[in-house]
Design brief:
By secondary structure, this protein is of the alpha/beta class. The protein has a single domain, classed as Rossmann fold (3-Layer(aba) Sandwich), CATH 3.40.50. It contains 7 helices and 8 strands; from the N terminus they run βββαβααβαβαβαβα. The chain has an 8-stranded mixed sheet, with helices on both faces. Helix 1 runs parallel beside helix 7. The radius of gyration is 17 Å and the shape is globular. The relative contact order is 0.15. The mean pLDDT is 96.
Length: 265
């Protein structure tokens, strides 16, 4: 194994906010902000925003745990091709040892952990989003605000979008950890009254294991039973040969951005 440090691979314009604290959480989070092409040239234009979990894995090989999503390259490519609306992306670094607790809505007795997603959500909604809206030229309404992630990050993103459906209307749920607390998130969807106006990208890979694929199918079925329509408000995909890896999520990042933030919208 090479001892050489990994090279930075950031593409585009970024701002970094380090050790962002919260009155709701014990942890601090680094926050990396991607700004779209032309952001500094047009001082009047405002942009939609996508908040993503596991921010250290999104843009930069040097900070990624096991490879990066290349989400910056995906955005630059799709914006340049006129397929995605120029947008701001906010990567919230996970807090290491606090990740499981903050990304899970309930305590799982089998894991003896979890259950701080509500506090994490308060940080995001009450503190981070207002800060981003004040610091950058954002479109602040729910129709122009998204949330997303993979694995436990996908779980917490769907949970918080359902809880704060007046704030997030665009949701990226990649390879979600549906298994958490005996499929709590499926029960949460089924318990909905009226269908909130969310556009949901839901995907999984066929090489993630039968349990992961079955979990994604259960979420799909629950969403459809509540009124989501595949091809309209819901994108559902089982990606042949894809595993539970950053490289697999990188492969579908352009399409995910195109579904949630199309240039033609």
């Amino acid at each position: 194994m090479s001892d050489e440090p990994k090279q930075h691979t950031l593409t585009g314009t970024f701002r970094m906010h380090e050790k962002v604290s919260s009155r709701y959480l014990e942890s601090e989070h680094d926050v990396i902000v991607y700004l779209p092409p032309g952001y500094d040239e047009d001082a009047e234009r405002r942009y939609p925003v996508l908040y993503m979990q596991d921010g250290q894995n999104l843009f930069d090989e040097a900070t990624a745990f096991a490879g990066e999503w290349r989400l910056d390259e995906a955005a630059e490519q799709m914006i340049g091709a006129g397929l995605v609306a120029p947008l701001i992306m906010v990567g919230i670094y996970n807090a290491g040892a606090y990740r499981i607790d903050e990304y899970t809505p309930t305590r799982d007795s089998a894991k003896r952990a979890g259950g701080n997603a509500d506090k994490y959500g308060r940080m995001l909604v009450d503190e981070l989003k207002p800060f981003i809206d004040s610091e950058y030229r954002t479109l602040t309404d729910a129709a122009n605000t998204g949330i997303g992630g993979s694995s436990l990050g996908g779980l917490v993103s769907l949970y918080l979008a359902l809880k704060y459906s007046g704030i997030f209307w665009n949701v990226a749920v990649l390879s979600p950890s549906v298994w958490w607390d005996n499929r709590f998130i499926v029960r949460r969807v089924r318990a909905l009254g009226t269908q909130p106006p969310l556009r949901v990208w839901l995907s999984t890979g066929t090489e993630e294991g039968d349990g992961v694929v079955a979990g994604a199918r259960r979420v799909h079925d629950a969403l459809v039973s509540k009124g989501w329509v595949v091809g309209d408000s819901l994108h559902y995909q089982e990606i042949e040969g894809a595993g539970h890896t950053e490289s697999a999520w990188a492969d579908i990042a352009p399409a995910m951005l195109g579904f949630l933030f199309p240039a033609s919208r």
